[in-house]
Write a structure and sequence with these properties.
Blueprint lengths: L1 H16 L8 E5 L5 E5 L4 E4 L5 E4 L5 E4 L5 E4 L5 E4 L5 E4 L3
Antiparallel strand pairs: 1-2, 2-3, 3-4, 4-5, 5-6, 6-7, 7-8
Length: 96
């Protein structure tokens, strides 16, 4: 669980570095299937699919995905992966 929190911390820190969104232009794209994608001027992107699952990608390539079933997957640019399923089971893969 500590490694999962570390991975989440890495991603959240990376995302927080790109959060001065208020001063940026944000392009929002609504797709025919009901999903929405938003991209800011720095290339950070967020996508919400028609079912409500969310995916966020920052300019460094860190990815965070939360599925509607409550599971969450985080992948950082070093290839580290953390996944927590809806039941709270955690899998962490650290790329050496």
């Amino acid at each position: 669980m500590k490694k999962l929190l570390l991975a989440f911390g890495i991603v959240l820190y990376s995302l927080s570095l790109s959060l001065p969104v208020l001063a940026q232009d944000i392009d929002v794209y609504e797709h025919e299937d009901g999903s929405v994608t938003a991209v800011d001027g720095d290339g950070n992107a967020a996508h919400v699919d028609a079912d409500g699952s969310t995916t966020v990608v920052d300019t460094d390539g860190n990815v965070a995905h939360e599925d509607v079933d409550g599971s969450t997957t985080v992948i950082d640019t070093d290839g580290n992966v953390a996944h927590e399923d809806a039941d709270g089971n955690t899998t962490v893969l650290i790329n050496p």
